[in-house]
Each structure stands twice: as C-alpha cells, then as structure tokens.
Specification:
Blueprint (H helix, E strand, L loop, with lengths): L15 E7 L2 H13 L5 H12 L3 H10 L4 H10 L3 E6 L9 H21 L4 E6 L5 H14 L3 E5 L13 H9 L4 E4 L5 H9 L8 H15 L2 H4 L5 E3 L1 H4 L1 H18 L12 H7 L1 E4 L6 H10 L5 E2 L11 H7 L5 H16 L4
Parallel strand pairs: 1-2, 2-3, 3-4, 4-5, 5-6, 6-7, 7-8
Helix pairs in contact: 1-2, 2-3, 5-6, 6-7
Bound molecules: calcium ion.
Length: 352
C-alpha cells in the first residue's frame, strides 16, 4: 500500500476529497456477526463484507484498519497524498442492512462518532449524516440534529433490503433533504439478490462493475419516478464519474421519450424535463475511484464544469500517485481549482 510519490505541496487550490469512508468498530463487529450467521440472505453483502472482514491479504487488512481510524492514521495518509480536507461518510451499506430499530440507533451513534472526530480535527474533516431509510418518518428528525451538528449532507448507500428511493414511501427523506438544502450522496452498495447472479458468477459484483450498474440504475429510477419534478431543488451526488450515466445521456433521452410516447410502461410517466436535464440540474458527480483525465473532461463537457468534483474513495482506493496525475491534467488552473475545491465548497457549503 505504501508508495513514494512527489506531490506538489503548494498547489493553487485546496484538495478536498468528497467520498471518503469510515466505519465504527462496533459496526464492523455487527457486520461480522451478520456475515457469520448468514441471516441476511443477501449474497452481495456476503461477497463484499465476507472478503473485507476475513481476508488476510494486505489490501483488505489495511482497509479494515484505516476505515476504523478517524485520527492519526487517516491524517498521515491525507498528508502523504496532499489531501487538505475529507468529506467523510459511513461506509457501505452503513445501517441499511439492519432492522428499523437497529438502523435508527446505529445511525445516531455513527453520526455522534463522526461528529466527535470533526470536533477534534475541524480543518481536516467534514461529515455526511447517516440516516435509516428503514424509518423514513424519522429521517427529518435525525437530519435536523445533523444540521445542528454541522454536517454537510446525507449519505445513502444505494438500495435498502432491495428497495429503492424511487419508491414514494422513502420520499419523506427527499422532502427533508430539500427543505434543509442537504445534498444526498447516493453511494453504491452491491446489487440486490435478484440482480447479482450473473455478476457474482463472474466476480463482477463489486466495485469493478456491479456497484456502478446498480447505483446508476438507482439514480435513473429516481429520475424516471418524477422525484425531481416533485422536489425540484433536491440535489443528488453520485461518484465514479456518474456511474456511467453521462456516457448514456443521448440514448436515455431518446428512449425515455420514445417509451413515454408509446405508452409502453404504465410506470413510465411523462416528466417535465429530459433525463439529461435532471443530470445537469439536480446531480453532481465525483471522480471517486476514477483518476482518469478523459472521463473527467467528458463529464465536465456534458454535465458541466460546476458539477464535477474530486474524490479519492479513501481507504478503498488510497493511491497518492493519483493526486500527482490529476494535478498534471491538461486543464486550466481555474478549472482545476473548481474540480479540487470550488465545486465541493459550493455543494457542501464549506466554511473551513
Ligand atoms: Ca466509496
């Protein structure tokens, strides 16, 4: 995991990393119990956390240690990679694999733990608020508490027991997020049981591909459900260069319009705008896990320069050399400053 790399210590911008994960040790223990009991009936969970919790290979072992740290290890890693500030969120699937009562109390505990860390390191960390989608009626309450504690947004780790935020029963979460002007980071989780089969068979269920397919579909479901017509000021952030959706925009617009015109699906209603317009007006994108100049430039071109921001995906892809590569992108200093700093400051209303 260690590498020696020369990173410019005085760039013309602050480097803010926006999809950085942590896990309370208590939650990792609960995950291990869940994995060993096989009670969840979620092959994606068993694949993901069975690997990260039990593998003795160097990468998963280091990730276990770094996930649980909100002090010296994390800050030393940030310093070594030239990262000034992390926006930290509860790692996937967060509280979303538990029952309602456990999820509500674990969300509060993890928010308290993250808040304590932010209090210890106010210039280095900000946080996203974990809520329990299992209790959408209580989301506003925890969100209000989080706003008072200084949190900058909400983390949602994709589906909850196979259900998606496009389902209106979850819309009290959107209502609260819009009312408090808190963006929702729609982070991946492994595909649910009824989707994962052929991916798992080929080892493609995780971050290599399955996460992106599932999360991209989740965002599309939210768009086509009409949620942004109902909540026009709702802001959603997706990582991994938009989970491939920017590349799909032309066909999404064409086929959505064609499907609506033909009345092909009862569930597919007309929307006020094109699919691509919601992507440009309600969505922000981070490059987590994709330190790749052509993809970043494409997204800046088709989604907008004021909507694309930096993320490292610490500790899962802790690769200090990517910072040197991104510093060297063939891009104006002004645009690089937006990418690393300006967009994140705006989206999360950062003051430090
Ligand atoms: Ca991540």
């Amino acid at each position: 995991m260690t590498e020696t790399v020369q990173i410019n210590p005085t760039p013309a911008y602050r480097r803010i990393a926006t999809e950085e994960a942590f896990a309370p040790p208590q939650m990792l223990k609960m995950y291990l119990d869940l994995y060993e009991s096989r009670k969840l009936d979620d092959p994606g969970f068993d694949s993901l956390w069975g690997f990260y919790l039990t593998s003795m290979a160097p990468r998963p072992a280091a990730i276990r240690e770094k996930l649980a740290d909100l002090d010296a290890i994390r800050i030393a890693d940030m310093d070594a990679a030239g990262i000034d500030h992390q926006i930290i969120s509860l790692t996937s699937p967060g509280v979303q694999v538990f029952d309602r009562e456990t999820a509500v109390s674990l969300a509060q505990d993890s928010n308290d733990m993250l808040h304590d860390a932010i209090t210890r390191h106010p210039t280095r960390f900000s946080g996203l608020c974990a809520i329990a989608p299992q209790a959408p009626d209580l989301a506003a309450q925890e969100l209000e508490r989080c706003v008072k504690l200084g949190f900058k947004g909400i983390i949602n780790n994709s589906h909850t027991h196979g259900e998606y935020l496009s389902d209106k029963k979850f819309w009290p979460i959107f209502e609260a997020a819009e009312a408090m002007d808190m963006p929702i980071y729609l982070h991946p989780y492994t595909p649910p049981k009824n989707m994962i089969g052929p991916m798992l068979e080929a080892g493609l269920d995780g971050a290599i591909f399955g996460f992106g397919v599932e999360t991209g579909m989740h965002l599309l479901r939210i768009i086509t459900s009409g949620a942004f017509d109902r909540f026009p000021k709702l802001r959603i952030i997706v990582g991994h260069m938009g989970e491939a959706l920017p590349y799909w925009m032309y066909r999404l617009d064409y086929m959505h319009a064609a499907g609506v015109r033909a009345g092909r699906y009862e569930c597919m209603k007309p929307l006020q705008k094109k699919v691509s317009e919601y992507l440009r007006e309600n969505v922000y994108i981070t490059n987590s896990g994709m330190a790749w100049e052509p993809a970043i430039k494409f997204a800046q071109q088709v989604i907008g320069e004021d909507r694309i921001m930096y993320a490292m995906d610490y500790p899962y892809q802790y690769t200090p050399s990517e910072v040197a590569d991104l510093d060297n992108m063939d891009m104006s200093d002004e645009l690089k400053r937006k990418f690393y700093q300006g967009v994140a400051e705006h989206v999360f209303k950062l003051t430090v």
